[in-house]
Write a structure and sequence with these properties.
The protein has two domains: about 220 residues, Jelly Rolls; about 150 residues, Galactose-binding domain-like (Jelly Rolls, Sandwich). Helices cover about 5% and strands about 45% of the residues. A hairpin with a 2-residue loop joins strand 2 and strand 3. The radius of gyration is 26 Å and the shape is globular.
Length: about 425
Amino acid sequence: MLAAAFLGITVAAAGGWRDDFDGPGLAERWQLHRPVEGPTVSLTDTPGWLRMTLPHRKGGYNHWITGPGCMDAPLLTAQAPEGNFAFETRLRVVHFGPGSNFHLAAVVGFSPGYVLAWGPFRAPMLPGAPRDEPELWAEPTGLGGFLKVSLPARELYLRIERRGSTYSLLYRRSAEEEWAKAGEYHAFAAPTFVGFLGKTFGDGEAVAFEADYAAVEGLPDAEAPPALLRIGADGAWPLDDRRYSHFIEHLGKCIYQGLWAEKLYNRKFTGGDQNGVVEGWRPVGEGGATFAPDTAHWYAPCQSQRIDLAGGGEAGVAQGPVGFRAGVPHEGYVVAKARPAGARLTVGLVAGGRTLAETTVGPLTEEWQRYSFVLPALGEAANAEVRIVAGGSGTVWLGAASLMPADNLGGWRADVVEVLRAVRPA
Protein backbone atom coordinates (compact mmCIF):
# COMPACT_ATOMS: atom_id res chain seq x y z
CA MET A 1 0.00 0.00 0.00
CA LEU A 2 1.32 3.42 -0.93
CA ALA A 3 -0.01 6.16 1.32
CA ALA A 4 0.21 9.79 0.27
CA ALA A 5 1.51 12.21 2.88
CA PHE A 6 0.10 15.51 4.20
CA LEU A 7 1.50 19.01 4.26
CA GLY A 8 3.80 19.75 7.20
CA ILE A 9 6.50 22.23 8.14
CA THR A 10 9.76 21.93 6.22
CA VAL A 11 12.70 24.17 5.55
CA ALA A 12 14.16 24.35 2.04
CA ALA A 13 17.89 24.85 1.61
CA ALA A 14 20.05 25.54 -1.41
CA GLY A 15 20.56 22.21 -3.15
CA GLY A 16 18.51 20.37 -0.53
CA TRP A 17 15.83 20.49 2.16
CA ARG A 18 15.26 19.97 5.88
CA ASP A 19 12.19 18.62 7.68
CA ASP A 20 11.96 19.09 11.48
CA PHE A 21 8.67 17.15 11.75
CA ASP A 22 7.04 20.05 13.62
CA GLY A 23 3.69 19.96 11.83
CA PRO A 24 0.63 17.78 12.40
CA GLY A 25 1.29 15.72 9.27
CA LEU A 26 4.02 14.69 6.89
CA ALA A 27 5.18 16.98 4.09
CA GLU A 28 4.14 16.16 0.55
CA ARG A 29 7.58 14.86 -0.36
CA TRP A 30 7.15 11.80 1.88
CA GLN A 31 5.59 8.52 0.82
CA LEU A 32 4.86 5.62 3.15
CA HIS A 33 5.46 2.24 1.54
CA ARG A 34 3.71 -0.28 3.83
CA PRO A 35 3.44 -3.71 2.15
CA VAL A 36 1.32 -5.17 4.99
CA GLU A 37 -0.94 -3.69 7.66
CA GLY A 38 0.43 -3.10 11.14
CA PRO A 39 3.28 -0.54 11.20
CA THR A 40 2.30 3.09 11.83
CA VAL A 41 3.88 6.52 11.45
CA SER A 42 2.95 9.44 13.73
CA LEU A 43 4.01 13.06 14.33
CA THR A 44 1.84 13.47 17.45
CA ASP A 45 3.13 10.80 19.85
CA THR A 46 6.16 12.99 20.59
CA PRO A 47 5.69 16.52 19.16
CA GLY A 48 8.59 17.52 16.94
CA TRP A 49 9.60 13.91 16.31
CA LEU A 50 8.56 11.38 13.68
CA ARG A 51 7.70 8.02 15.25
CA MET A 52 7.52 4.67 13.45
CA THR A 53 6.00 1.79 15.42
CA LEU A 54 6.27 -1.87 14.41
CA PRO A 55 3.88 -4.06 16.43
CA HIS A 56 4.55 -7.68 17.30
CA ARG A 57 4.11 -10.00 14.34
CA LYS A 58 5.28 -13.58 14.01
CA GLY A 59 8.22 -13.44 11.60
CA GLY A 60 8.40 -9.66 11.90
CA TYR A 61 8.46 -7.10 9.12
CA ASN A 62 11.63 -8.07 7.30
CA HIS A 63 13.55 -6.57 4.40
CA TRP A 64 15.86 -9.14 2.83
CA ILE A 65 16.45 -11.04 -0.40
CA THR A 66 14.92 -14.39 0.65
CA GLY A 67 12.54 -15.89 3.16
CA PRO A 68 8.85 -15.50 4.04
CA GLY A 69 7.81 -11.87 4.35
CA CYS A 70 11.21 -10.71 3.11
CA MET A 71 9.73 -7.47 1.70
CA ASP A 72 7.23 -6.61 4.46
CA ALA A 73 9.21 -3.83 6.18
CA PRO A 74 7.75 -0.31 6.04
CA LEU A 75 9.72 2.39 4.23
CA LEU A 76 9.12 6.13 4.57
CA THR A 77 10.78 7.69 1.54
CA ALA A 78 11.48 10.97 -0.24
CA GLN A 79 12.95 11.33 -3.72
CA ALA A 80 16.75 11.31 -3.81
CA PRO A 81 18.37 14.31 -5.49
CA GLU A 82 20.51 13.96 -8.56
CA GLY A 83 24.27 14.13 -8.23
CA ASN A 84 26.23 14.08 -4.99
CA PHE A 85 24.35 14.65 -1.75
CA ALA A 86 24.25 13.98 2.00
CA PHE A 87 21.26 12.63 3.92
CA GLU A 88 21.30 13.01 7.69
CA THR A 89 19.02 12.54 10.68
CA ARG A 90 18.94 12.18 14.44
CA LEU A 91 17.45 8.82 15.34
CA ARG A 92 16.58 7.23 18.69
CA VAL A 93 15.14 3.88 19.75
CA VAL A 94 12.21 4.44 22.12
CA HIS A 95 10.87 0.94 22.71
CA PHE A 96 11.85 -2.70 22.31
CA GLY A 97 11.55 -5.93 24.31
CA PRO A 98 14.04 -8.59 25.48
CA GLY A 99 13.39 -10.71 22.40
CA SER A 100 13.20 -7.94 19.81
CA ASN A 101 15.28 -8.30 16.64
CA PHE A 102 15.48 -5.15 14.56
CA HIS A 103 17.34 -2.79 12.26
CA LEU A 104 16.00 0.78 12.49
CA ALA A 105 17.75 2.86 9.92
CA ALA A 106 18.30 5.88 7.76
CA VAL A 107 18.41 4.60 4.20
CA VAL A 108 19.50 5.44 0.70
CA GLY A 109 17.42 3.28 -1.63
CA PHE A 110 18.10 2.05 -5.15
CA SER A 111 14.78 0.21 -5.50
CA PRO A 112 12.10 -0.94 -3.04
CA GLY A 113 14.02 -4.19 -2.73
CA TYR A 114 17.56 -2.78 -2.50
CA VAL A 115 18.57 -0.25 0.15
CA LEU A 116 21.64 0.78 2.13
CA ALA A 117 20.47 0.81 5.77
CA TRP A 118 22.46 2.66 8.48
CA GLY A 119 21.23 2.61 12.07
CA PRO A 120 20.67 0.74 15.37
CA PHE A 121 20.76 -3.06 15.08
CA ARG A 122 19.89 -5.70 17.67
CA ALA A 123 19.34 -9.43 17.12
CA PRO A 124 19.54 -11.81 20.11
CA MET A 125 18.42 -14.60 17.75
CA LEU A 126 21.56 -14.28 15.56
CA PRO A 127 25.04 -15.57 16.56
CA GLY A 128 27.53 -12.72 16.93
CA ALA A 129 24.89 -9.98 16.86
CA PRO A 130 24.22 -7.58 19.77
CA ARG A 131 21.95 -9.26 22.32
CA ASP A 132 21.36 -6.45 24.83
CA GLU A 133 22.03 -2.88 23.71
CA PRO A 134 21.66 -2.09 19.99
CA GLU A 135 24.83 -1.30 18.05
CA LEU A 136 25.34 0.76 14.90
CA TRP A 137 25.27 -1.41 11.79
CA ALA A 138 25.17 -0.82 8.04
CA GLU A 139 23.58 -3.46 5.82
CA PRO A 140 22.97 -3.26 2.09
CA THR A 141 20.05 -5.57 1.36
CA GLY A 142 21.39 -9.13 1.38
CA LEU A 143 24.79 -8.32 2.94
CA GLY A 144 24.37 -9.14 6.63
CA GLY A 145 26.75 -7.42 9.06
CA PHE A 146 28.44 -5.45 6.27
CA LEU A 147 29.71 -2.74 8.65
CA LYS A 148 29.55 -2.79 12.45
CA VAL A 149 30.38 -0.04 14.95
CA SER A 150 30.51 -1.34 18.52
CA LEU A 151 29.04 1.56 20.45
CA PRO A 152 25.68 2.10 22.20
CA ALA A 153 23.24 3.13 19.51
CA ARG A 154 19.98 4.03 21.26
CA GLU A 155 20.36 7.62 20.08
CA LEU A 156 22.72 8.87 17.37
CA TYR A 157 23.10 11.39 14.57
CA LEU A 158 23.47 9.52 11.27
CA ARG A 159 24.71 10.70 7.87
CA ILE A 160 25.14 9.05 4.47
CA GLU A 161 27.18 10.94 1.86
CA ARG A 162 27.00 10.01 -1.81
CA ARG A 163 29.86 10.89 -4.13
CA GLY A 164 29.51 9.08 -7.41
CA SER A 165 29.20 5.37 -6.65
CA THR A 166 30.74 5.74 -3.17
CA TYR A 167 28.53 6.05 -0.08
CA SER A 168 30.29 7.16 3.11
CA LEU A 169 28.66 6.22 6.43
CA LEU A 170 29.13 8.71 9.27
CA TYR A 171 27.82 9.18 12.80
CA ARG A 172 28.16 11.34 15.89
CA ARG A 173 26.67 11.22 19.38
CA SER A 174 25.84 14.92 19.72
CA ALA A 175 25.45 17.96 17.50
CA GLU A 176 28.66 19.41 18.96
CA GLU A 177 30.86 16.50 17.83
CA GLU A 178 32.57 16.19 14.47
CA TRP A 179 31.21 13.53 12.14
CA ALA A 180 33.11 10.24 12.42
CA LYS A 181 33.42 8.13 9.29
CA ALA A 182 32.76 4.43 9.88
CA GLY A 183 33.27 3.11 6.35
CA GLU A 184 32.11 3.09 2.74
CA TYR A 185 29.83 1.16 0.44
CA HIS A 186 30.03 1.13 -3.35
CA ALA A 187 26.90 0.80 -5.49
CA PHE A 188 26.65 1.13 -9.25
CA ALA A 189 22.87 1.52 -9.26
CA ALA A 190 21.59 5.10 -9.08
CA PRO A 191 19.76 6.04 -5.85
CA THR A 192 16.05 6.75 -6.19
CA PHE A 193 15.05 7.68 -2.63
CA VAL A 194 16.21 8.50 0.90
CA GLY A 195 14.29 7.95 4.12
CA PHE A 196 13.68 5.55 6.98
CA LEU A 197 13.38 1.77 7.31
CA GLY A 198 11.75 -0.12 10.17
CA LYS A 199 12.80 -3.77 9.98
CA THR A 200 12.02 -6.56 12.46
CA PHE A 201 12.46 -10.32 12.22
CA GLY A 202 12.01 -13.42 14.35
CA ASP A 203 9.20 -13.44 16.90
CA GLY A 204 10.16 -10.57 19.21
CA GLU A 205 8.20 -7.83 20.89
CA ALA A 206 7.04 -4.56 19.34
CA VAL A 207 9.63 -1.92 18.41
CA ALA A 208 9.41 1.86 17.98
CA PHE A 209 11.90 4.53 16.95
CA GLU A 210 11.83 8.28 16.40
CA ALA A 211 13.58 10.76 14.11
CA ASP A 212 14.12 14.37 15.20
CA TYR A 213 14.67 15.67 11.66
CA ALA A 214 15.66 14.67 8.15
CA ALA A 215 17.87 16.78 5.92
CA VAL A 216 19.32 16.56 2.43
CA GLU A 217 22.08 18.82 1.13
CA GLY A 218 23.89 18.88 -2.18
CA LEU A 219 27.61 18.11 -2.11
CA PRO A 220 30.23 19.49 -4.51
CA ASP A 221 32.14 17.16 -6.75
CA ALA A 222 35.43 16.04 -5.27
CA GLU A 223 38.38 18.00 -6.63
CA ALA A 224 40.89 15.92 -8.54
CA PRO A 225 44.42 16.22 -7.14
CA PRO A 226 46.82 18.08 -9.44
CA ALA A 227 48.90 15.84 -11.69
CA LEU A 228 52.60 16.53 -12.15
CA LEU A 229 54.57 14.96 -14.97
CA ARG A 230 58.30 15.47 -15.35
CA ILE A 231 59.80 14.74 -18.77
CA GLY A 232 63.52 14.69 -19.35
CA ALA A 233 65.14 14.40 -22.79
CA ASP A 234 68.72 14.36 -21.53
CA GLY A 235 70.55 11.07 -21.49
CA ALA A 236 69.80 7.55 -22.62
CA TRP A 237 68.07 4.93 -20.51
CA PRO A 238 68.42 1.21 -21.23
CA LEU A 239 65.32 -0.96 -21.62
CA ASP A 240 65.35 -4.39 -20.02
CA ASP A 241 65.06 -7.15 -22.63
CA ARG A 242 62.27 -8.72 -20.55
CA ARG A 243 60.09 -5.62 -20.65
CA TYR A 244 57.14 -5.99 -22.97
CA SER A 245 53.39 -6.00 -22.63
CA HIS A 246 50.04 -6.33 -24.34
CA PHE A 247 47.35 -3.66 -24.45
CA ILE A 248 43.68 -4.55 -24.41
CA GLU A 249 40.58 -2.38 -24.30
CA HIS A 250 36.80 -2.77 -24.54
CA LEU A 251 36.74 -2.20 -28.30
CA GLY A 252 34.17 -4.22 -30.21
CA LYS A 253 34.51 -7.84 -29.10
CA CYS A 254 38.04 -7.58 -27.71
CA ILE A 255 36.97 -8.60 -24.19
CA TYR A 256 33.40 -9.91 -24.39
CA GLN A 257 33.30 -12.75 -26.93
CA GLY A 258 37.03 -12.14 -27.40
CA LEU A 259 39.39 -12.95 -24.54
CA TRP A 260 36.62 -13.99 -22.15
CA ALA A 261 35.13 -17.43 -22.77
CA GLU A 262 31.62 -16.44 -21.65
CA LYS A 263 29.05 -16.93 -24.40
CA LEU A 264 26.18 -14.95 -22.85
CA TYR A 265 25.68 -11.19 -22.82
CA ASN A 266 24.01 -9.51 -19.81
CA ARG A 267 24.08 -12.74 -17.87
CA LYS A 268 22.97 -10.99 -14.63
CA PHE A 269 19.75 -9.68 -16.25
CA THR A 270 20.35 -5.97 -15.60
CA GLY A 271 19.58 -2.87 -17.63
CA GLY A 272 16.59 -1.70 -19.60
CA ASP A 273 13.88 -3.82 -21.11
CA GLN A 274 11.91 -4.26 -24.30
CA ASN A 275 8.62 -6.16 -24.21
CA GLY A 276 9.36 -6.90 -20.56
CA VAL A 277 12.65 -8.68 -21.29
CA VAL A 278 16.00 -7.22 -20.26
CA GLU A 279 18.67 -6.01 -22.68
CA GLY A 280 20.36 -8.69 -24.78
CA TRP A 281 17.53 -11.23 -24.43
CA ARG A 282 14.21 -11.75 -26.19
CA PRO A 283 10.99 -13.52 -25.19
CA VAL A 284 10.23 -16.98 -26.61
CA GLY A 285 7.47 -19.49 -26.15
CA GLU A 286 3.73 -19.61 -26.11
CA GLY A 287 0.74 -19.77 -23.83
CA GLY A 288 0.30 -16.14 -22.81
CA ALA A 289 3.35 -15.79 -20.55
CA THR A 290 4.23 -12.26 -19.43
CA PHE A 291 7.67 -10.82 -18.73
CA ALA A 292 9.05 -8.00 -16.56
CA PRO A 293 12.33 -6.87 -14.96
CA ASP A 294 11.94 -7.32 -11.18
CA THR A 295 13.79 -5.08 -8.71
CA ALA A 296 12.05 -6.56 -5.66
CA HIS A 297 13.46 -10.06 -6.24
CA TRP A 298 17.08 -10.20 -7.36
CA TYR A 299 20.15 -12.39 -7.05
CA ALA A 300 22.77 -9.87 -8.19
CA PRO A 301 21.98 -6.21 -7.48
CA CYS A 302 19.57 -5.06 -8.31
CA GLN A 303 17.31 -6.81 -10.85
CA SER A 304 16.17 -10.19 -12.13
CA GLN A 305 14.13 -11.39 -15.09
CA ARG A 306 10.60 -12.35 -14.08
CA ILE A 307 8.50 -14.76 -16.15
CA ASP A 308 4.83 -15.27 -15.25
CA LEU A 309 3.73 -18.55 -16.80
CA ALA A 310 0.09 -18.99 -17.75
CA GLY A 311 0.06 -22.78 -18.11
CA GLY A 312 -0.35 -22.79 -21.87
CA GLY A 313 3.07 -24.17 -22.82
CA GLU A 314 6.76 -23.45 -22.41
CA ALA A 315 8.03 -19.87 -22.34
CA GLY A 316 11.24 -18.10 -21.45
CA VAL A 317 14.08 -16.01 -22.84
CA ALA A 318 16.60 -16.47 -25.63
CA GLN A 319 19.82 -14.90 -26.88
CA GLY A 320 21.67 -15.14 -30.15
CA PRO A 321 23.42 -15.43 -32.46
CA VAL A 322 26.04 -17.38 -30.51
CA GLY A 323 28.92 -19.31 -32.11
CA PHE A 324 30.19 -22.74 -31.00
CA ARG A 325 33.39 -24.59 -31.93
CA ALA A 326 33.06 -28.16 -33.12
CA GLY A 327 33.86 -30.99 -30.74
CA VAL A 328 33.88 -28.93 -27.51
CA PRO A 329 31.33 -29.57 -24.72
CA HIS A 330 29.95 -26.51 -22.95
CA GLU A 331 29.40 -26.01 -19.21
CA GLY A 332 27.01 -23.58 -17.65
CA TYR A 333 24.64 -22.75 -14.85
CA VAL A 334 21.44 -20.87 -14.15
CA VAL A 335 20.58 -19.18 -10.85
CA ALA A 336 16.81 -19.24 -10.49
CA LYS A 337 13.81 -19.63 -8.19
CA ALA A 338 10.09 -20.22 -8.65
CA ARG A 339 6.81 -19.69 -6.87
CA PRO A 340 5.30 -22.16 -6.32
CA ALA A 341 8.33 -24.44 -6.18
CA GLY A 342 8.67 -27.32 -8.59
CA ALA A 343 9.15 -25.79 -12.03
CA ARG A 344 11.95 -27.14 -14.20
CA LEU A 345 14.09 -25.18 -16.65
CA THR A 346 15.11 -26.42 -20.07
CA VAL A 347 18.35 -24.96 -21.43
CA GLY A 348 18.86 -25.56 -25.11
CA LEU A 349 20.69 -24.55 -28.28
CA VAL A 350 18.59 -23.94 -31.38
CA ALA A 351 19.72 -23.19 -34.94
CA GLY A 352 17.65 -23.02 -38.10
CA GLY A 353 14.55 -24.15 -36.23
CA ARG A 354 16.31 -27.32 -35.07
CA THR A 355 17.28 -28.16 -31.48
CA LEU A 356 21.00 -28.95 -31.41
CA ALA A 357 21.20 -29.84 -27.71
CA GLU A 358 19.20 -29.36 -24.54
CA THR A 359 19.17 -30.31 -20.87
CA THR A 360 16.77 -29.89 -17.98
CA VAL A 361 17.56 -28.59 -14.48
CA GLY A 362 15.45 -28.40 -11.33
CA PRO A 363 13.01 -28.69 -9.73
CA LEU A 364 13.33 -25.04 -8.69
CA THR A 365 12.77 -24.02 -5.08
CA GLU A 366 11.39 -20.75 -3.70
CA GLU A 367 14.93 -19.63 -2.80
CA TRP A 368 17.75 -18.65 -5.16
CA GLN A 369 19.80 -21.71 -6.12
CA ARG A 370 22.46 -22.41 -8.72
CA TYR A 371 21.73 -25.22 -11.18
CA SER A 372 24.71 -26.48 -13.21
CA PHE A 373 24.52 -28.29 -16.54
CA VAL A 374 26.68 -29.61 -19.40
CA LEU A 375 25.79 -29.49 -23.09
CA PRO A 376 27.51 -32.14 -25.24
CA ALA A 377 30.04 -31.45 -27.98
CA LEU A 378 28.46 -30.46 -31.28
CA GLY A 379 29.46 -29.69 -34.79
CA GLU A 380 30.44 -26.12 -35.53
CA ALA A 381 27.54 -23.66 -35.24
CA ALA A 382 27.96 -19.98 -36.08
CA ASN A 383 24.41 -18.70 -35.52
CA ALA A 384 22.87 -20.70 -32.71
CA GLU A 385 20.46 -19.34 -30.12
CA VAL A 386 20.57 -20.11 -26.38
CA ARG A 387 17.14 -20.62 -24.82
CA ILE A 388 16.08 -20.89 -21.17
CA VAL A 389 12.42 -21.88 -20.86
CA ALA A 390 9.99 -23.30 -18.30
CA GLY A 391 6.55 -24.87 -18.51
CA GLY A 392 3.47 -25.00 -16.34
CA SER A 393 2.05 -22.10 -14.35
CA GLY A 394 3.41 -19.80 -11.66
CA THR A 395 6.34 -17.39 -11.60
CA VAL A 396 9.99 -18.04 -12.42
CA TRP A 397 12.82 -15.60 -11.68
CA LEU A 398 16.19 -15.78 -13.49
CA GLY A 399 19.00 -14.18 -11.46
CA ALA A 400 22.13 -15.16 -13.41
CA ALA A 401 23.26 -17.47 -16.20
CA SER A 402 26.56 -18.59 -17.72
CA LEU A 403 27.73 -20.72 -20.63
CA MET A 404 31.39 -21.41 -21.45
CA PRO A 405 33.34 -23.98 -23.48
CA ALA A 406 34.55 -26.73 -21.14
CA ASP A 407 38.18 -26.14 -22.14
CA ASN A 408 38.22 -22.55 -20.80
CA LEU A 409 41.23 -21.64 -18.67
CA GLY A 410 39.95 -19.82 -15.63
CA GLY A 411 37.41 -18.03 -17.79
CA TRP A 412 39.86 -17.30 -20.64
CA ARG A 413 39.36 -18.73 -24.12
CA ALA A 414 41.81 -21.59 -24.54
CA ASP A 415 42.59 -20.72 -28.18
CA VAL A 416 43.41 -17.11 -27.24
CA VAL A 417 45.71 -18.22 -24.42
CA GLU A 418 47.53 -20.53 -26.85
CA VAL A 419 48.21 -17.60 -29.19
CA LEU A 420 49.38 -15.36 -26.32
CA ARG A 421 51.83 -18.01 -25.16
CA ALA A 422 53.53 -17.80 -28.54
CA VAL A 423 54.05 -14.04 -28.34
CA ARG A 424 57.68 -12.97 -27.86
CA PRO A 425 59.28 -9.51 -27.70
CA ALA A 426 60.63 -8.31 -31.03
